[in-house]
Amino acid sequence: MSISTDIFYMQAALRLALKAGDWTHPNPRVGCVIVKGNRIVGKGYHRRFGSAHAEINALRAAGTRSVGATLYVTLEPCNHFGKTPPCTDAIISSGIRRVVIATPDPNPQVAGKGIKKLRSQGLTVRVGVMKELAIELNKEFYFAHSHKIPFVAAKSAATMDGMISETKERGVTVLLMKDLSFLSFRRLLRRLYSLGITSILVEGGGRTISSFVDSGVIQRLHLFIAPIMLGKGIPLFQRRKSLYISASESFSLKKTSKFNGDLYAEWEVER
After folding, report:
1. In this predicted structure, what is the pLDDT of residue 239?
2. Cα distance between residue 176 and residue 178, in whole Å
3. Interatomic CA distance for residues 18 and 20, integer angstroms
4. CA 69: distance to chain centroid?
5. At 14, which helix (H) or strand (E)?
6. For the range 186-194, what are the long-range contacts, defined as Cβ-Cβ under 8 Å and sequence gap of 24 or more?
7. What is the pLDDT of residues 129-158, one digit of tens each?
8. Could you give the CA distance from residue 246 to residue 237 in angstroms, rounded to a whole number?
9. Annotated active-site positions, please?
10. Are strands 218-226 and 151-159 parallel, antiparallel or unpaired?
11. What DSSP state is assigned to residue 129?
12. How confident is the model over 192-239, as pLDDT tens digits?
């Protein structure tokens, strides 16, 4: 098939993957379509953690029409036993002759093994169709397995002039991280990754948020800005170190929206 045809059907698989929302966490969102005679004969997506993978749902929908067909999937099929059996075995036994994969799986348990298994059984495999969009779809998953630490997002709120409170901060301490150094943060995150945690959300006041920003581990910032100005108070960002502009973090604005009269902005760190 032509690259334009492969892109067309991979777009359909990506749209299916989006339907999962966050229900698959810590697994990635994955979509799959099976095409025969220029027609989709089966489709599916990974609906929630622990349930059948996208490929299995699509194969079940296609039935015997899978024989000689092309399977499009947004992530490399697994080749190991986890909560479900290997998807590669089901694909091979179904009679699928060609597999188009958006991107390899960065999980060390897979990491090319699924592609190798399919090719060893004579299936034609194409990898890299719409790779960038597939990675963006599961950005936290890819970051965690590529860096061996969870993807860290922070959420906070402030006034238009950057204040979070008029008076002393009050709240409940969930995790005490007093004066953690850069290396301490990294050790903590590596420990969390070893426990299977691929993403975390940090909520807190100025000192908490600033500690994580100073450590360089924040990847995404969710910020709610109220349409008021305090003039003075406790600032949202209380940096412990002074940086030159050239050495400071650079953030890219990803989305904005209104939320109960406040402005919501999502930012991601540019590396």
Report:
1. 62
2. 6
3. 5
4. 29
5. helix 3-18
6. 186/149, 186/215, 186/217, 189/149, 189/150, 189/152, 189/217, 190/148, 190/149, 192/149, 192/150, 193/144, 193/148, 193/149, 193/150
7. 999 999 988 988 898 888 898 988 888 888
8. 18
9. 55
10. parallel
11. T
12. 888 888 888 888 777 777 778 777 788 888 888 888 887 777 777 766
Strands of the sheet with 70-73, listed across from one edge: 40-45, 31-35, 70-73, 98-101, 124-127
Buried b (16+ CB within 10 A) or exposed e, 134-155: bbebbebbbbbbebebbbbbbe
The distance from CA 189 to its chain's CA centroid, rounded to whole angstroms, is: 17
Number of H helices, E strands in the chain: 8, 12
d(CA 65, CA 34): 9
CA–CA separation, 197 and 148 (whole Å) = 10
86 and 109 Cβ atoms separated by less than 8 Å: no
Of 235, 200, 236, nearest to 220 by C-alpha is: 200
Query: Which residues make beta-bridge pairs with 268?
Result: 220, 252
CA gap 267, 19 in Å, rounded: 23
Give the phi and the psi of residue 121 in degrees, each rounded to 5: -100, 10
Q: Low-confidence residues of the chain, pLDDT below 70? A: 1, 82, 165-183, 238-249, 271
Name the DSSP letter for residue 29.
P
Angle CA(49)–CA(54)–CA(56) in degrees, nearest 5?
A: 105
